[in-house]
Amino acid sequence: MSNFEELSKAVIAGQEQKVKELTQLSINEGVDPLSIINDGLIQGMNVVGQRFKVGDMFVPEVLMSARAMSAGVAMVKPLLLDGQMTSKGTVVIGTVKGDLHDIGKNLVGMMLESSGYQVIDMGVDTASEEFIAAVKENKAQVLGLSALLTTTMLSMKDTIEALKEEGIRNDVKVLIGGAPISQTFADEIGADGFAPDAASATELVGRLIG
Ligand code: B12
């Protein structure tokens, strides 16, 4: 089994210590840092995302995998060349007002970060004004909104309207996601895109600003 395969397996199994050991091993062997992230750590997390989707893995396991992956990413990050992680663009991401769910949003943020985007994480319960301030301040190309409740998903529309009022709607692509969100809803409220999971979200960001 290659190092990458072993690393992916350790991420899938949520074995943080093993991920750290294997990551260190790859670093010692001089493996390209970006490759450790993309071919090892993220590969594992992609499998986790797919298994979660079909009901083969559950939230606590997903969290353990995410934690294990982050531990590996944190070790590799300082080794990346300047700009290697931040050259692809800036994404502001957060969970909308009134909503405290952040597991999926964190996964999306982590995966975007590991794929080379600068991610500004606004946390949970984020008001439209806070999103707008962050988009302006960081000159973000993408705004990612997460909602897990049917009641809070409606505030995504408010944020899009507020972007229009501020005159910056055309400066930023709005991407939405979360369990109750669909492409139909995205079309309805005038979002630029919807993605059902972290891997597709990363792909979509690439397509939107790539
Ligand atoms: C864990 C959980 C909680 C935890 C949250 C912990 C945390 N730190 O996030 C706690 C216990 C706090 C919680 C609280 C509540 N919850 Co809750 N919760 C869940 C649960 C079981 C899992 C959500 C989750 O983390 N999934 C795992 C992640 C990986 O998946 P995900 O969030 O869908 O994210 C993926 C995609 O959606 C997408 N994605 C997510 N965000 C984004 C953003 C962008 C930009 C993109 C592109 C993609 C994207 O990519 C992610 C990764 O693959 C769901 C059930 C469910 N089926 O969703 C209920 C659920 C969402 N909760 C629900 C409810 C009702 C509540 C409460 C109101 C309960 C209560 N009565 O107190 C409160 C609300 C608190 C609040 N104000 O937000 C309901 C919502 C019903 C509805 N239709 O609105 C659900 C559906 C459960 C149910 N069947 O009743 N909850």
Helix coverage percent of residues? 40-55%
Here the CATH topology of the largest domain equals Rossmann fold
CATH class categorisation of the largest domain: Alpha Beta
SSE topology string: HHHHEHEHEHEHEH
Main sheet strand line-up: 2-1-3-4-5
| Number of helical stretches of at least 4 residues | 9
The molecules bound to the chains, other than polymers, are:
cobalamin
Averaging pLDDT over every residue, what do you get?
Answer: 91
Low-confidence stretches: none
Got a strand count? 5
Range of strand content:
5-15%
Gyration radius over CA: 17 Å
Looking at CATH, the homologous superfamily of the largest domain is Cobalamin-binding domain
- Outline the biggest β-sheet: 5 strands, parallel
Domain count: 2
Structural class: alpha/beta
The 3D shape can be described as: globular
